[in-house]
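hey so i finally got around to running the thing on that chain from the lab meeting. sorry it took forever, my laptop kept dying and i had to restart like 3 times. anyway pasting the input first so we r on the same page abt which one it is
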Amino acid sequence: MHFQWYPGHMTKAKRMMQENIKLIDIVIELLDARIPFSSRNPDIDQLAQNKFRLVILNKADLADEEGNRQWEAYFKEKGFYVLRVNSQKGQGIKNVKGTIMEACKEKIERDRKRGIKNRPIRAMVAGIPNVGKSTFINSFAGKACAKTGNKPGVTKGKQWIKINKDVELLDTPGILWPKFEDQAVGLRLAMIGSIKDEIVQMEELALSLITYLEERYPDYLKDRYGFSAELSTPLSVLEQIGIVRACKKQGGEVDLEKAAAIVMEDFRSGKMGRITLEFPE
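ok and heres what got predicted. didnt touch it at all, straight out
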């Protein structure tokens, strides 16, 4: 499979972010904790030059604990503030405001010396599609102020959100970058749902995931789908899952497309267990 998805609204969104960056004190970059490297838009580093930086490892509850620990250390070493968060359940959210204030303490001190008081910190929330930005903002703000959806591309324009007297957030649409130099990055993005399912081949996606799981988390598939036989290929594993889950076409043939959709949904929702798809080198 060749992965690419860069609809027109993303070009517009990037331009809007470039225009607004001068108003911003800190860039909060949301990453998917299962693929922190692949879910980083390389354009954001350029965009956020000379700004304070906070990396949020979102969906940390879906990634394995060792992976979370390694990635947190990796980004801290690069000079970022880092938090692990589960936006859906609000875990880790209470640490966000304090971390923003800590990251921007130089700016707050500069303002104080110039006699500027009570000016809120302005933060831009950035990230790729489907990484959970809107859910994060709603959880942080304590109210439903950003649209949410489990499909990429729900946020189409910018919106300012007042969190409290200290922090204002600029929500921005999820943007990818025009060309994936490494197709393995595209594959991982498709696995977590950041590329529209309609333009990927679900069967190939599931086979790639099964290949990885057999190597890194060998018991997860057997535990989830209840088969004990040693199967020789990812395809035979997918067929077995189709049999276990009664995915049948007319005539009794295994419906691999349906089995693949089950595998991908179980991975994305965390029903298989906590899985990290990449680790720092």
